[in-house]
Amino acid sequence: MQPDYDDCWLRYREVRDEALRASYRRLCSHAYVSEQSRELGAVREELRRGLGGLLGRDPHLWQHPPRTTDGFLAVGTPADMDVVAQCVDEERVADLAEGGYVITTGEWEGTDVLVVSASSDSGLVYGTFHLLRLLSNHEPIEDVHVVEEPASPDRLINHWDNPFRGSVERGYAGQSVFDFETLPDLRERYRDYARLLASVGINGIVLNNVNTQIPGRDSANEAMDVLEGWRLLETRYLEKLTGLASLLRRYGTTTYLSVNFGAPEKIGGLDTSDPNDPEVAQWWAEKADEIYDLIPDFGGFLVKADSEGQPGPYNYDADHVDGANVLAEALEPHGGRVWWRAFVYGSHKDRAVQQYDTFEPLDGEFRDNVTIQVKNGPIDFQPREPVSPVFGQMPETELGLELQITGEYTGQHVHACYHVPMWKEVLEFDTDPEGHGTKVKDLFTDEGTGMAGVGGPGEDRSWTGHYLAQANLYGYGRLAWDPDLETEAITDEWVRQTFGHDPDVVETVTDIMHDTWPAVIDYSTGGIGLMHMMYNGEAYLENHYDPGPEEWPGYTGATEDGIGKDRNSEGNGYAQQYPDALADLYDDPESCPKELLLFFHHLPWDYELSDGRTVVQTLYDNCHAGVEEARRLREEWRTLEGEIDEERYRHVAERFDEQVEHAGIWRDRLTDFFYDYSGIADEKGRVPRED
């Protein structure tokens, strides 16, 4: 029975080009696959599914090299298969980083062989998916030679799923994929999700929300925890996770959990969770032992502490080193790791300042199995913000880059917004252009470092709530594996695997994807550095979808005399957290990048920019331009009617209708806001509007 959800980029449609299909059939109709581990069962299953679709007929899967064909595929390690050993450089394969693989051609007893080899089972899984990606993208394989190793050792997905509510915080695709109450029963959808993750090289998944508790009220108006993710550390729920962890393991994905820092009190019955209390340390050690008895390859803990209502070491007059290290010590005997989020704010009026002030002085004090997980920018996943100054300035601490896959501030998967260009901007950023010259992407190559993408799919048929938002999950995985990949290459891969190879379709979808992010920036921020322009709402279910710039005076800095925030040497000194070359760049409005100007500077409304326009006129123009661009993108999509399947065409077309309408609401609210403070009319007569 066909599952009632999309197969995303793993569509495996038959290759129609006769010459190419004949080439693929010659080398892939017969496959000799090792059977030395459970992971290789996943390889055989994927080859059957993928080759069956691409070749137009099921492949023969052998347990020995076939002798009646002029070519075949071999998948295995040199140690397990003599065929492979004859076709690859064994030393080179042995030296591959964990998860790395080789795809090459060779010869065995006069027969041509296409080989996928690795030194680890996970490498064979990733290599198999890479081969299928080559075929899906119609790449030649007759004389192929690919050597791939992941740039980042840890490539995680951080789900924000609420286990006992079935909801997903910042999830815009329905309820959680994971039904924790029915575990250990496994749904077929779990397997298909594991396939999606493995196909782009993701090797770790945090199953639950970092917000493991949120204070609320029950129907009797008594205090309670609205979210109870902390309960996953209870023995009865840990036992439920074993089957899911085993399934994920077959696809090279390790299981992690978000944990509540107050768990020793909530679960263990202790009267404190003080990280310096020996009984607390003992409780965490015993809990770690219990977890690893059940899940031997458990990855470790993700922790959000001392932020937004989550308990932390500050509750006990301790610091983040104390908090992270007590957990790390418990996990260390098992090879586990603590991912400790740097998203901490509350003691400073401007959260941009706090992360560097909090963590940079602690550099070198964290245990080796602690990774400090830092958001790409200092605020909170805004459509565009400067790169966090923490990067490049904690050389003695393992860092992880946190990116948001889900579209919290970029239209919540109603609006189309492709995040890969944003992430490339971050990864290519030079953290000290006049010093050591290290780009952000260079910081995540050593053991203990990595990348974490926030926001997993939901129960929606599309997985992501918008068919075009699938590209963000795909693109995150590809960049986490290889941050040197260009945006254009990633987009081309995804479009061809998702929508096929018709040149007009490929060009149209590609152009739409590349132009979505700039449009969102323009109509939702004005395009020159403003942050937090959205309606916030109440409780933990903040809206974050509609405009509400009046709610954030501390971030917009809007006054009668001007707009923006002085985060420079004349203001709160945030710019001076960067190395000198960057601090000087940001400190002067004449040299500050235009796209960040109002983030670093409060400027008069009539301040003239380099193009001769004033600040307020630029804001007006950009808001209007963003809406016009959204309209243009909608019209571009409409040209695809009849060229792609009706379901995906209609879904995206209707989402574009909503995006255009909602972008207009943003434009009107923001331009009214700018006019109300500045009193300066739009020189093009668009503001103020006649009722």
Automatic annotation (TrEMBL):
Gene Ontology terms: biological process: xylan catabolic process
Residue ranges annotated for the Glycosyl hydrolase family 67 C-terminal domain, each copy included: 464-686
Lineage top rank: taxon: Archaea
Gene3D superfamilies hit by this protein: Alpha-glucuronidase, C-terminal domain, Chitobiase/beta-hexosaminidase domain 2-like, Glycosidases
Entry-linked InterPro entries: A-glucoronidase_C_sf (IPR037054), GH (IPR017853), Glyco_hydro_67_aGlcAse_N (IPR005154), Glyco_hydro_67_C (IPR011099), Glyco_hydro_67_cat (IPR011100), Hex-like_dom2 (IPR029018)
Keywords from the named record: Carbohydrate metabolism, Glycosidase, Hydrolase, Polysaccharide degradation, Xylan degradation
Domain Glycosyl hydrolase family 67 catalytic residues, every copy: 136-463
Cited SUPFAM superfamilies: (Trans)glycosidases, beta-N-acetylhexosaminidase-like domain
Ranges of residues in domain Alpha glucuronidase N-terminal: 8-131
GO molecular function: hydrolase activity, hydrolyzing O-glycosyl compounds
Family: Belongs to the glycosyl hydrolase 67 family.
Protein name according to UniProt: Alpha-glucuronidase family glycosyl hydrolase
Regions crossing the membrane: none
